[in-house]
Amino acid sequence: DMTRAFNFSAGPAAIPTEVLERAQKELLNWNGYGCSVMELGHRTPDFQGILDKTEANLRKLLKIPDTYKVLFMHGGASHQFSMVPMNFLAPEETANYLEMDHWSRMCIKEAQRFGNIHLQQGIRTNSEGLMELVPENEWQLDEKGKYLHFTSNETIVGVQFQEDPHTFSGKLVSDMCSDILSRPIDIEKYALIYAGAQKNIGPSGMTVVIVREDLFESFHTERVPSLFQYPYVSEKGSMPNTPPSFGIYFAGMVFEWLLENGGVEQMYKRNLEKAHLLYDYVDQSNFYHSPVAKGSRSFMNVAIQMKDRTHEERFLHEARENHLIALKGHKTFGGLRASIYNAMSLDGVKSLIRFMEQFERNVT
Ligand code: PMP
């Protein structure tokens, strides 16, 4: 079957078809150079040009001020779980972490190796059994903590901050893996933002870090390996060693696609439209429901449950036959999940809703 499906994967996730086609066209002979970017030396002016343009376009998309460094790093977001405390925290110091679901717990476990971690619960089950954010006015943070780390969007359960935290007077650090580039961000509120590429940026294996440069001199890096020091990676222009060059090139193509399609502001509008359509449908249904309370719902990862969970397997199977793929919820949470990142079209969401209606009719 040669049909390209609507891909609802949480990550690695859908990449815009136009970008894949461009990558395909450029694969054997990039820019008349006679080889692909995969085969291009990273110390060549040509690759430096790709890197510079990729950075410039990301700066344009997110309006990143000059006082911030943009780093394209190896590895997943999970590497940043360690790198953040390795750079920011001395062993006797404290940092605040919001405990959400799986990803923030993984993150907290790593941070605890490097300093004192003050935990604040960020997510809870309400009286109706729905997941919700703990309101900020109920948080108790250590105001002397070096920073507050939070996961802006919990990919697995589909809970997302609706606004930046604003009561903590110290530095904000955020894992924005699953909502970077989906909405405008006020970068200046943050000390550091990181995001693995495989949702809204490009293929896996590369992570974007946006960090306030003036913090570098306060970092505790004496015992940190150079490749894990932000100032070192920055000083080397994201190339302390061979960078994930193909991933950087690919991200660059996605950034150009975003700019051609109205940038982050336009994506945000479309993302809200897609999410509202899906949540509205689920809310009026007696067959499906959302496990997340209104006001805490993610517009990137829409968790959906069927009242009768025995239909799940059949749903996933028939969805697949209808070219709607990767709708299975994370193994720790179950149910269904539609990840509707930037590359998912409104058409894709409408197709999913049509399929859900039809499935309900067929089994009831
Ligand atoms: N944080 C969040 C919010 C995520 O969704 C993920 C991956 N899905 C990660 C961290 C971990 O990313 P990686 O696999 O790139 O380490």
UniProtKB/TrEMBL annotation:
Its EC number is 2.6.1.52. Its cofactor is pyridoxal 5'-phosphate. Pyridoxal 5'-phosphate binds at A77, S78, W103, T155, D175, Q198, N241, T242. The modification N6-(pyridoxal phosphate)lysine is found at K199. It is found in: Cytoplasm. Gene3D superfamilies: Aspartate Aminotransferase, domain 1 (3.90.1150.10), Type I PLP-dependent aspartate aminotransferase-like (Major domain) (3.40.640.10). Binds 1 pyridoxal phosphate per subunit. Pfam families: Aminotran_5. Keywords: Amino-acid biosynthesis, Aminotransferase, Cytoplasm, Pyridoxal phosphate, Pyridoxine biosynthesis, Serine biosynthesis, Transferase. Residues 6-352 form the Aminotransferase class V domain. InterPro entries: Aminotrans_V_dom, Pser_aminoTfrase, PyrdxlP-dep_Trfase, PyrdxlP-dep_Trfase_major, PyrdxlP-dep_Trfase_small. Its main location: cytoplasm. Pathway: Cofactor biosynthesis; pyridoxine 5'-phosphate biosynthesis; pyridoxine 5'-phosphate from D-erythrose 4-phosphate: step 3/5; Amino-acid biosynthesis; L-serine biosynthesis; L-serine from 3-phospho-D-glycerate: step 2/3. L-glutamate binds at R43. It catalyses: O-phospho-L-serine + 2-oxoglutarate = 3-phosphooxypyruvate + L-glutamate; 4-(phosphooxy)-L-threonine + 2-oxoglutarate = (R)-3-hydroxy-2-oxo-4-phosphooxybutanoate + L-glutamate. Belongs to the class-V pyridoxal-phosphate-dependent aminotransferase family. SerC subfamily. Catalyzes the reversible conversion of 3-phosphohydroxypyruvate to phosphoserine and of 3-hydroxy-2-oxo-4-phosphonooxybutanoate to phosphohydroxythreonine. Homodimer. This is Phosphoserine aminotransferase. It comes from Kangiella marina.
